[in-house]
Amino acid sequence: MITSNLKRIMEEKGVTIRKMVEHTGLADMTILRARRKHICSCRLGTLLIMAEYLGVKTKDLYDED
Predict the structure, then answer these.
(1) Going from the N-terminus, what domains does the chain have, and what CATH number goes with each?
(2) Which one-letter DSSP state was computed for residue 16?
(3) Which pLDDT band, with edges at 50, 70 and 90, does 64 fall under?
Protein backbone atom coordinates (compact mmCIF):
# COMPACT_ATOMS: atom_id res chain seq x y z
CA MET A 1 0.00 0.00 0.00
CA ILE A 2 1.26 3.47 -0.83
CA THR A 3 0.82 6.15 1.82
CA SER A 4 1.33 9.89 1.49
CA ASN A 5 4.01 11.83 3.35
CA LEU A 6 2.80 15.13 1.89
CA LYS A 7 0.96 16.34 5.00
CA ARG A 8 3.98 15.65 7.23
CA ILE A 9 6.42 17.34 4.82
CA MET A 10 4.18 20.38 4.46
CA GLU A 11 3.86 20.70 8.25
CA GLU A 12 7.62 20.34 8.75
CA LYS A 13 8.27 23.10 6.21
CA GLY A 14 5.45 25.35 7.40
CA VAL A 15 3.68 25.20 4.03
CA THR A 16 -0.08 25.63 3.93
CA ILE A 17 -2.40 24.41 1.21
CA ARG A 18 -3.09 28.03 0.28
CA LYS A 19 0.66 28.76 -0.12
CA MET A 20 1.13 25.68 -2.26
CA VAL A 21 -1.82 26.59 -4.48
CA GLU A 22 -0.52 30.14 -4.95
CA HIS A 23 3.05 29.08 -5.78
CA THR A 24 2.43 25.96 -7.85
CA GLY A 25 -0.84 26.64 -9.64
CA LEU A 26 -2.17 23.25 -8.53
CA ALA A 27 -5.82 22.98 -7.54
CA ASP A 28 -6.54 22.92 -3.83
CA MET A 29 -8.53 19.69 -4.24
CA THR A 30 -5.50 18.01 -5.84
CA ILE A 31 -3.35 18.90 -2.85
CA LEU A 32 -6.07 17.88 -0.38
CA ARG A 33 -6.47 14.47 -2.03
CA ALA A 34 -2.70 13.92 -2.05
CA ARG A 35 -2.52 14.80 1.65
CA ARG A 36 -5.34 12.34 2.42
CA LYS A 37 -3.44 9.25 1.34
CA HIS A 38 -4.52 9.40 -2.32
CA ILE A 39 -1.10 10.40 -3.63
CA CYS A 40 -1.01 7.36 -5.92
CA SER A 41 -3.77 8.94 -8.02
CA CYS A 42 -1.60 11.99 -8.77
CA ARG A 43 0.05 12.34 -12.16
CA LEU A 44 3.82 12.33 -12.33
CA GLY A 45 3.83 15.98 -13.40
CA THR A 46 1.83 16.91 -10.30
CA LEU A 47 4.23 15.01 -8.05
CA LEU A 48 7.18 16.75 -9.69
CA ILE A 49 5.63 20.18 -9.11
CA MET A 50 4.90 19.40 -5.45
CA ALA A 51 8.34 17.95 -4.82
CA GLU A 52 10.13 20.86 -6.47
CA TYR A 53 8.16 23.42 -4.48
CA LEU A 54 8.83 21.57 -1.22
CA GLY A 55 12.50 20.98 -2.03
CA VAL A 56 12.27 17.18 -1.78
CA LYS A 57 12.54 14.24 -4.17
CA THR A 58 9.33 12.80 -5.56
CA LYS A 59 10.00 9.51 -3.76
CA ASP A 60 9.94 11.43 -0.45
CA LEU A 61 6.28 12.26 -1.01
CA TYR A 62 5.17 8.68 -0.40
CA ASP A 63 6.00 5.40 1.34
CA GLU A 64 5.33 1.90 0.13
CA ASP A 65 4.21 -0.49 2.87
Answers:
(1) 2-57 (1.10.260.40)
(2) -
(3) confident
